[in-house]
Probable membrane transporter protein
Amino acid sequence: MMIYLPIAEVAVNAWIVLGLGGLVGILSGMFGVGGGFIMTPLLFFIGIPPAVAVATGANQIVASSVSGVLAHLQRKTVDLKMGAVLQAGGLAGAFCGVALFNYLKSLGQVDLFVTLCYVIFLGVVGGLMFIESVNAWRKAKSGAVPKRSRHSPIHGLPFKVRFRTSGLYISVIPPIAVGFFVGVLTAVMGVGGGFIMVPAMIYLLGMPTKVVVGTSLFQIIIVTSASTMLHAITNQTVDIVLAVLLLIGGVVGAQFGTRIGVKLRAEQLRILLATLVLLVCGKLALDLLLEPSELYTLATPGRS
């Protein structure tokens, strides 16, 4: 069933879009990521313009994250206080990210910039996460208990706050900084930032894995909502028809993903997430290196 997308100005198969939304919803529930690192490139692959894919993909992340958070709240695996601090930094980052996105769009370089960002960030993060996760999995199989120091340079920073759900007493500066960086990525790349947020919460902030997924999803909701609104107001690049299809698939998929995630060990979840990140990175890098089938395209002035 073909359906026309008025803002993207292309016709797509509605069932394919619903399927993409469901797939990303499953990933959201399993890994605590918004799934934008998968969704946005997939929208590129089916012909959605990058500017529309970034803005609309962020909107879909909101729905799947809300669905996933509700499931985690029932299990009491969400640190609301830590999530609020991360959101504060994320909102500031989203404003800066949209400003950068608009500037690059005016120069006509936003498509290349977004793709390069995906290749660099996904390659580095996916590679490091995969190596660490495989090592942790091997130690777990051998019976060794992996040790993660609870003390790091961040414990000497001022403005300390106690986060009881996570069992931490640390400065709010690192969480705000992490939130800010992820907010910028959300606005520029159309991602929830979970592929950065989840490792940062575990290895930088020292949060227990059991509360990381739910807290990451909680943070994603506000930041991606703000990013979507800013894109809609300043760029008019949010396609409502595309967003609704993605929302429906994402909400349903997140419920299944949450059930799958609780049945897997933390090391297994991180290995799967790292593998997905590297696969998407490889596809995007290949597209950049291969010569396109059409060397020239006609575009309406003012649109990316």
In short: The CA atoms of residues 51 and 304 lie 6 Å apart. Residues 2-289 form one domain. Strands lie at 2-5, 10-13, 160-163, 168-171. The radius of gyration is 19 Å.
